[in-house]
Amino acid sequence: MDQSQFDQLVEEICAVQVTDSEMPLVDLGVDSLHTVALVMAVEDRFAVELDPDALADLSLTSSAGLLRLVHEQLATGANASAGS
Predict the structure, then answer these.
(1) For the whole model, what pTM was predicted?
(2) CATH number for the domain whose boundaries are 1-78
(3) Rounded CA separation 82/68 (Å)
(4) Which of 39, 56, 52, 46 is nearest to 77 (CA)?
(5) Which of 15, 42, 45, 60 sits CB 3.0–4.6 Å from 65 for a disulfide?
(6) Where are the chain's structural domains?
(7) Which residues form a coiled coil (predicted)?
(8) Closest residue by Cα to residue 51 from 29, 84, 77
(9) What is the mean pLDDT of the segment spanning 28-49?
(10) pLDDT tens for residues 59-75?
């Protein structure tokens, strides 16, 4: 999934318009309930589990940051599967 598709997912789940993928979601008007819904949707869609503590990292609180985290989780999962 590319950034524009991920931004569309964020817009759909959080009812906001992503004008800058690097802008913190809170600055776009995303509240804590939308954040929880977004994390759940991302986990379901990508079959990954996001570390709640990682979301405390401000660099991950944007659409682009969240997508980077998903890609990292997918890469880690692929590496873990390859080692099995």
Answers:
(1) 0.84
(2) 1.10.1200.10
(3) 21
(4) 46
(5) 60
(6) 1-78
(7) none
(8) 77
(9) 92
(10) 778 999 999 999 999 99
